[in-house]
Design goal:
The chain is an alpha+beta fold and 131 residues long. The protein is built from two helices and four strands. A four-stranded antiparallel beta sheet has the order 1-2-3-4, covered by helices on one side.
């Protein structure tokens, strides 16, 4: 062999780059990871929306209890539209003669993705004279 010449076999063994199989395997692993990430984001958005509706219902129930405690006369049933949803609330008041307190429950209902959702808040307090 002459100086400066390379055998052909050594060039074939030292080629650089990836084979088609390696590229396909890496792309399939990458696509599985991306699908998992997209699925996680979609689930997070769905859960975030559910928590948002739940919080609105909770705030409506809390507002009704605060208004009742302040002595405001509220209807026993009412429908309010908040954030594009119809929230229906219902109030139950019972007077306990022994403790001389009113037991009040506020139920808030709404529809979400075809399912009925409900929040119930209850408390007891001395009730003011109703106006």
């Amino acid at each position: 062999m002459k100086e400066g010449s390379f055998p052909k076999q050594s060039l074939l063994n030292h080629t650089k780059g990836f084979t088609l199989l390696e590229v396909l395997v890496s792309l399939s692993i990458l696509s599985i990871g991306l699908v998992a990430i997209v699925n996680a984001v979609v689930n997070a958005l769905r859960i975030n929306r559910h928590i948002y509706y739940h919080t609105v219902g909770l705030l409506l129930a809390d507002e009704a209890l605060n208004r009742l405690e302040a002595g405001e006369l509220l209807p026993e049933r009412k429908t309010e539209k908040c954030s594009g949803k119809d929230y229906r609330w219902r109030i139950e008041k019972k007077y306990d003669f022994y403790s001389k307190l009113y037991s009040v429950k506020v139920y808030v209902n709404w529809q979400e993705r075809g399912k009925n959702c409900q929040i119930t808040l209850s408390t007891s307090f001395p009730f003011h004279n109703e106006k």
